[in-house]
Amino acid sequence: MSPSHSYYFSQCVHIWGWASWRRSWQSYDFRLSQLTETERADYLHLHFDHAEVASYWERTLLSVTTGEVDTWDFQLSFASFFNSWLNVIPARNLVSNLGYGEDATHTRETVNKLSRMPTWEIEFPLDHPEAIERWKEADDFTDRHIFKVFPKRRTLRKRLKHAFLSARKLIPA
Q1: Which residues in the chain show pLDDT less than 50?
Q2: HSE of 50 in the Cβ direction (CA atoms, 13 Å)?
Q3: Distance (Å, whole) CA 89 – CA 68
């Protein structure tokens, strides 16, 4: 899978070699306290196309709120989902994470496929996508290969239920 442009748009936040705007941090909630656990779970199940992905993020965010996991990046991912951000992801890897090993804060394993990945120089002029829209296939790839979530194919009934609940959310009370 390779994008045909210099970059693509994703709902995922890739946190190695990234940049952001100040306004993104104004939506950031380190303690994930803006919503109750139930509200957060309901939102995730409405937001994602696959229940398995929603459940993964529900478990992941719960591990942050209970203190089981000490991190900052999952909260940024939730802010991205909740605010419907599109993140710009380069088509080719521009940075390599050297922070693996015994002295690392979170990535202590010494062998990991994400460690010391090959990098490329960015090429100018950039080749821009025709539209500003999420590349769903890339997000599905990230779910499977980075987060190890393997969504099942949804039945027509589940797709209709998801569409109904999503539409209901858009209609003011």
Answers
A1: none
A2: 14
A3: 29
